[in-house]
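Input sequence (245 aa), recorded before submission:
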Amino acid sequence: MCTILFAWQQSPEQPLLVTANRDEFHQRPTAHAAWRNGVFSGIDLLAGGTWLGLHENGRFAAVTNFREFPLQHQAKSRGALPSDFLQGTQTPAEYCASIAAVQEEYGPFNLMVCDGESLWYMSNRGVAPCALEPGIYGMSNGLLNDPWPKVVRGREALANHLQASDNALLELLRDTHQPADEELPDTGVGVEFERRVAPLFIRSKEYGTRCSSIVRLNNKGEWTMVEQNWDPEGNPAGPMHTSYS
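Predicted structure, token format:
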């Protein structure tokens, strides 16, 4: 479970601002963000691939799963979707078209890819590839801008933090607000689990927010990314990992 909040073409100085939380079991083996073969990203050491990253040549990609029950197990890992785009040369439109042709080979996903010129989104749960118009968006484990409480609350917060520092954006991502039960989505997993994963920032011993990321593209075509990892108590787990491209 993850949440990605992003502002596309909302500022001449900063065409893209992405803030994201990765939620996962704390025991799942993961490598923190670092440069590997021209890509700055974390790595899922169990299934391979990544959930979010950028390439030194100016490419960005991120993926979330789509929550549904019963769980679907496909042969190909969703983590390959961002990794393959980052290492490739296709435009966002070309890449999404190629994935759309084989989308059922992957588990349920939302995908966003950007080359600095265009930002594309697709989901294999009913949304064909499309170029996104300027706006402020939220993507969790439903479709883009589905009105889940943390998506609605997060988009509103991001709209007021477009020029904020990295530290201020990390605080935005640490929102532990617990919505009322009547506000929760019904994704077939039961109200107890819906409550558990409802906050933007999730704290628990077994499962929670593992890291927060901030990605920026400025009007000079320069990308930056920072990643802060968190322990099960919600405290920083090691230093912030920073990259400039």
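Checked by second reader. Residues 2-244 form a domain with the Penicillin V Acylase; Chain A fold (CATH 3.60.60.10).
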